[in-house]
Structures are given as structure tokens and as C-alpha cells.
From TrEMBL, chain A:
It holds the Pfam family Gluconate_2-dh3. It comes from Cyclobacterium plantarum. This is Gluconate 2-dehydrogenase subunit 3 family protein. It comes from the Bacteria.
Automatic annotation (TrEMBL), chain B:
Keywords: FAD, Flavoprotein, Oxidoreductase. Transmembrane segments: none annotated. Residues 200-323 form the Glucose-methanol-choline oxidoreductase N-terminal domain. This is GMC family oxidoreductase. It comes from Cyclobacterium plantarum. Pfam families: GMC_oxred_C, GMC_oxred_N. Its cofactor is FAD. Residues 434-554 form the Glucose-methanol-choline oxidoreductase C-terminal domain. Belongs to the GMC oxidoreductase family.
Amino acid sequence: MDRRSAMKQLAVLTGGVIMIPSCDFSEEAILQAYQNLNITASQKALLTRVTNTIFPGTTLKRAEEIQLQDFVLVMCNDCLKENQQQSFVLGLKQWDDFTKQNFGQAFSKMDQNEAADAIRETMSLEAAPESDAALLGRFLAITKQFALQGYLSSEYFMKEIKPYELVPARFFGSKKIENA
Amino acid sequence: MANLNIKSKQENTYDAIVIGSGMSGGWAAKELCEKGLKTLVLERGREVKHVQDYPTTNMMPWEFEHRGNIPEAVKKENPVVSRCYAFREDAQHFFVKDTEHPYVQEKPFDWIRGYQTGGKSLLWARQVQRWSDFDFEGPARDGFAVDWPIRYKDIAPWYSHVEKFIGVSGNRDGKPNLPDGEFLPPFELTAGEQYFKDFLRENYPEREIIVARCAHITGNQEFYAKQGRALCQNRTLCQRGCPFGGYFSSNSSTLPWAAKTGNLSMQHHAVVHSIIYDEDKGKATGVRVIDAQTKETTEYYADVIFVNASALNTNLILLNSTSNRFPNGLGNDSGVLGKYVAFHNYRAGISGEYDGLKEFTTEGRRPTSGYFPRFRNVYKQETDFLRGYAAGFSANRSMINDYSGIGDELEKAMTREKYGPWRVGSHMMGETIPKEESQVSLDPNLKDAWGIPQLKISMDYDANDEAMIKDYLEQMTEMFEAAGFTNIRTRDDKRAPGLDIHEMGGARMGKDPKTSVLNEWNQIHSCPNVYVTDGACMTSTSTQNPSLTYMAFAARAVDHAVKNLG
């Protein structure tokens, strides 16, 4: 059985049982900018690693270069319903432990390929809704959704990659496509 | 009236008072000022000056903190306005929040309001289809409400008068149930819409798609330059207020025009409590106003009063204008004031895809869409429900990307787009029947922040509306399938009345004072120096977006008022 299938089975069979959320004994300060999230600077740093894994900057700019982590946090703080907000925050807090236990290495220690695999595999797990695996899946789905929204509507993307026209001053209803 | 502000009566006297500065109030003001009357416009909200008070108008998408989304906390506090399609981060400052002006929903009703200079004319969808005699003759033919006291010929010249000034883009389509007007060049149908239009011509000859007429300037630039307005630049960011004045609003057009005459006075934060009726003179003499901020009461006086406070607020003001002569509200001898309100049925819609026309796409943006004029029960009764529906219709093609991956796969996919299928869609705009039990009234106990009774709203869908939804979905599905559209999905979103933002009636026009509030000139039968020319005057709802008709009524009524002034 390869690792991927084993992971899937494990998650399905055990649900949340093997996952023990780490207790946070540190005194690290809560980031005041996101009052609904109660997260720390190191959790934000972990999120930044996640968004940098989603947008590593090989073809386009890296997520961090356009402060995508800030946008994800603003949206999670302001525009999510409470239960989704909880999924996001709990998931973020458990992500390093989850990856350590399921992929043998904490996410924050992984290189880009390993990190991308961990995200891909977790997002494709078929897990019971109450399981930790499902929770982490929801955390990643929310993060990716806002990261993608933020990227596509970023100044960088809308100026340099796919220019947005504030004033098109035209409309053609039947434009012939060259090489259609 | 403990804190009555007694300024000299003379200082507060005008030739005319207009209550409300929105779509129809702006028109009343323009016409009155042009005819030389010193006119006071009372606006209950804050001042919004054209261009300079459109804070988001030139913002780029990335400049919005939530990229257009409304935060959850705002939604939680304002569930009603949050359901409105245009209540987004870029235009939220032009909407009344639920808490600002509470009302009582005896039945669910989403009351969407804009309290500021220009009212909802800043935010409207700018659709301006004329009504025809198929609409004005509807109640008499089909036996509901009361007969309209006017016919198309009475209002046609006023439609023209309004259209020329506001600027209306459209085609001369030659359809008797959607009369042609004074049109500037039309926007194009898309290739997908043209395909469906051609398909209908072959297969459903009595049904037709046209490009919807909209209040956008697409020609005759010199004429509109006199209003300080320029050609529509296809931004489709209209709800933010247009820096070009490309679409019509009171702010960009009628109010500045009225101001240029020197006859206009505007009072903001002026909440109208009631209209003052003088029993000795047997007419209305003025308006009692509460300052929204200081709560101070002031009275203003005039020979003629136009009520354009928006359909339901006009009802509220008239119901609250009590006197010995009118104990149940101004002009309410008949007891019908507040009754026979109605709306447009926007509950149903349909979407699908079209796989053809691969070699075509669209370019740029268009501030309107295709339009399906009513085809049901036009010439004769042919279904088991009364009246019918118009519908929006659009077919657009967008680029699609595969965003399923992560990492470099995702980054590459974001730069690699391809043409998707044509996406087709339609939403219904159903005529609803005004009924006696559909009504607004004053709550006997609850008051607003200004001590004015809260409005109690009670209207709902009925069996006729349900039958019409069913028919719309059946007919559209049949036509979509026959046209070769795929992935067809129908929806009935069960929305409450109100989100159509086409509430009408309550002070309906009619021939008989025993069954109506207003006469054929929009005058209150029993108090003829008060004119009502907003949505409250409507006897029936038709299927067409009503604003153009309110504006035409306002201009026509001013002409009548001025000709009849002492």
C-alpha cells in the first residue's frame, strides 16, 4: 500500500482519534488586527508558508510578495460565518501537528514539493466530516479560495498579468475570434 | 410640537414643495423650476453631490478591502438590505441600513431604500421600457383593481419629453406592447442573444428578444454636454455614481438643471412628518418637517405640493397627514389609501450553456442586456393565470481557467485561459395583481427615531403568481431546450417581495373618488393641490420597469399644475 492510500485509510478509519491538538503553552501575543481569529504571529507565519506553497512564485509572483496572507486573514476575520471561521482557525492551529503525524514531517519544515504534496493530499482526503482530516481540508479550502480571490484581484495581477480596464468605452456583441 | 421652530412664515414660503429628490422628485423639481416656480425640495437623507460625493467611483478592484464583499457583521445587523444584489462594498453607503429606519413586516417584505440626494436614482438598474395600452387597459380588460384614468396617448408625449432629456439607448423594435421612443443608438445584442432571437423568429414568431432600452447616453453628445454629462463609457460600475454622468440620475441631471434656473432650494435631513391641511381654505398649505439630526420641527408652505417620497414612504406621509377633515389620512375619503399595493415577481430564473458560435465572443462591457417583452395574454386571455411576465435574457461568453491545482500548476493555469461556452440566462419580471388585502398602514404603537409611526407592510405572492412562475419556468425551459442550450438549471429563490425594488400603489389613480386616491392628473381627488407622481400612484404594475413612467407622470402633472395655478 502506498503512502497516499495508507493516509486516506487512516484518516477514514480513525477520524479524529489519533489527532490530539497541541496545547499552546507559549505566551505569544495575539495579533490585534484580526480580533475574531485569536491567532499569533507564528500562526500567521505558518499561513504564509501555506499561501507561498499555493503560489510559490515560479511563473507568477510569490504569494508573500503581494501580501496574500494579509488578505486571507482579513477575509477570514471579516467575511466568514462563525463556523467557517472556527474551521479556519482550528485548522491553522493543527496544521503543523497534522502534517507531522500524517506525513512524518511538520509542514513548516517541508520543502516546496513536500509541502505542495501535503496540501494536495489533505485536500483530496475522503474523511468523515467530524474528523481532523476533514477539518484540515476545510482549512485548506478556505485558505485557497481567499488566496485565489486575492491573487486574481491583486494590483499585480490586474495590472501586469491580466490588465483590468476601468473605462472600456466600447462593447462589441459579436467579435470574431482569430484562430478560433 | 414642543420645539416648534417659528421662523417667519414668509421666509418658509415657496411656490411649490417637492417631497423627495429621487427619480420622480427630481423631475418634478426640474419642471417646476423651469416653469419659474420657486421650489423647495425636501430630502430626508444627506447631501450627495454629483461626482464629488461618489467616494468609490474611480477605485480599482484591489482597492476594496474585501474585494466587494460585505462583512458578516454588517450582514448580521442588516439582513434586509444585505439581500439586495447591489448592496456591495462599492455602493453600500448609498443604502439605508435596516436599523436606520425600522418598519414592521406583517408579512416578509425586503424594503430597499436610498436616503440621500437622488435617492435610488443613483442605484437603479436604468431600464426604461415604455408601457402600452396592453398595460393601461389591463385592469379594465381583466377585471382587477380599477380602470386606469389614462391611456397610452395621454402619457406618450411625456415619455418622449423625459426620454429626450435623460438619454435613452435603444432600438426602434416596432413592438405594439413595448412602444418605441426617442432613442439614442442601441447597444448590440451579443452573438448568443442574436442566435436566440433568430431561433425564436423561426420557431416562436410571436416572441422576440430585443436589446433592453436603458437610460445611458450613447449619442447626441452636444445636447447632453449642456447637462454636464458625457457618453457612457461602458464601465458598468453605475451603482457607485458615474463620473461621466453616462447614466441618468437626479444627481447628474435633473437637480443640477433645476438649480441652474435659480429657483431651486434644497433642504437635506428633512424628514417629512405630514402635509398640513387648512380646513378653512380647503386645501393643503404646507409640509411639517422634522430635522433628521436635531429633531427640530419646521413648517414650510407652498401653493402646490408634490409627493415623491418613494412609493411606500409616500403612503406613510399621506396616512400620517391627519386632520378633522381627513382623520384617516390625507385624501383618504375612500378608505383605499395604503391598499392595493403590489410589486414585481422576480422569483424565478433559468440558466444554461450554448456550445455553438465558437468563433465569436464579446468585447468590452455593456450596461444593459437582452429583453423578452411580455408574450403571455397580450392580445387575449390564453392561460389559467392573469397577465404575464417580461424577462431579462442574456448570453455571454467568458474565459475559463482551471484553478484546481496548486503550486506552479496553478500559476501556469492562471495565465492560460481559454474560451468557455456561451452562458445564457434569464430572470422573470412578473406583473402582480394589486389586491385590497395587500396594504401598508401605520403601526398603532411603534414609532421611528423621529416620533413618526412605523410603516406596517403586508403583501405576498398569491396563486396567480405561483402559476405564472410555473409557466415562466416551463416556457423558458422548452425554448432553451429547443434552441439547443444545455446544462439548463431553473431556480425559484423564494425571495420575499421587495427585492424587485418595484413596489407600487397605495394611492392609486382612478376615475372614481370612491375607489381611488388620485385623479387622471395625479392630484388627490379631494385635495387637488397635492400631486403624487411616484410609485404610490400606480393602479397596476405592468411588467415593465416603472421609473420611466413615474418620471413621465411627474412632468405631465407639473404641466397640469402650473397651467391651473391661480
